[in-house]
What does this fold into?
Amino acid sequence: MRIVVTIIFLLWIVLWAIFSLVLMGITTLLDILLGHKERTLTLRISYLVARVVYLTCPMWRVKVEGRENLADGKPYVITANHQSFFDIPLMFFIPNNRGFNFVSKIE
It folds into this structure.
């Protein structure tokens, strides 16, 4: 029974990944065509997708520590430690993510 649940879970994640990739491609194109330099549509849809993925996987629990240290209106650099596949989607759980941007390097 455990292997069946694992397979269903993995299929669910793969289907969501494919759906999300297509959806993000479409919203990114729309943002470009509409001239949204900050990709506002893409970020909003990404936020919703991250929430749906999290809420539909009952095995996960997110614990965010240090929210009380974030002041409104101030810029912050917050990094993910990449200890799981879901570090980046979980970044959308950080409050006050207006102006939220990703930075990466080629390596």
About this structure: The two ends are 41 Å apart (CA to CA).
